[in-house]
Amino acid sequence: MIKSFWNKLMMYKAVLDYLKSVSDRWSQVADLVADVGAMEALVDEIDQTNRHASGDIRGKTDQKDVEQKKVIGMANRIAFSLAAMAARTGNNDLLMKTDFPVSHLEKQRDLEQANTADEMASLAREHLEALASANITEADVVALEEQTQRYRACLPANRVSVAERKAANKKLKGLFVKADQLLKKQIDKLAVSLESTDPDFYEGYKNARIIVDYGTRHEQPAGQSA
I need a surface site. Which of 8, 56, 94, 170 has the fewest CB within 10 A? Predict the structure, then answer.
């Protein structure tokens, strides 16, 4: 991300952080609620697109470890319940798929772990009625599926090609145009409309709208509002 965009992105986030911290002072304005939600979505998309543009689409190692431990624990619980049910009912095919040691998932590669977790969720859904006596519910299956998705999101993806990076950079510029338009033409104006009744709120908003120099060179002078 070019340096001027980075400082602008920090301003977007500062504005959102400020608005969240004083939401009780503007949440009665339905249009502003909608616009802030749209801004949050744009900022999230900018962050994701920037990771593609830079070629860095890996999740943080510490976050991956947290999600990995959760998915292994949840998948093991369901797998062992399935294995016990399969042994009790003589379902040898199911038993072969689920009767593995505690360390089995831990020894698998990352994607294999995710695939195994998905398989356990699918098998549990097929045998949900029989698993009721083992205290495995639909909610447990959904929780494993969602946890597996979170885990997959933290895994290293394939290398981003040059063409994909160029496309991401082009998209990034468009996203900043949209964010600027949303901020200037809608959120700023609604914030101004609250100045007469809540000048302290508006003063805080104006301070959050300042682009700060975070120690990098950028095209726009520090302290200038976009």
Answer: 56
pLDDT tens digit sequence for 141-150: 999 999 999 9
Tell me the residue type at 178.
K
Locate all alpha helices (DSSP H) within the chain, ordered by sequence.
Answer: 3-21, 30-54, 61-89, 92-98, 103-107, 110-126, 128-131, 138-154, 162-182, 188-193, 199-208
- The rounded distance, in Å, linking the Cα atoms of 180 and 80 is 52
Return the structure tokens found at 125. 């859904």
| Dihedral in degrees, nearest 10, Cα atoms 113, 119, 121, 125 | 180
Contact 172, 1 (CB under 8 A): yes
Cβ atoms of residues 28 and 201 within 8 Å: no
Distance CA(209)–CA(225), nearest Å, equals 6
Tens digit of pLDDT for each residue in 184-206? 999 999 999 999 999 999 999 99
In contact, 197 and 29? CB cutoff 8 Å: no
Alpha carbon distances (Å) from 207 to 25, 34, 109, 210: 16, 22, 48, 6
Q: Name the pTM for this structure.
A: 0.52
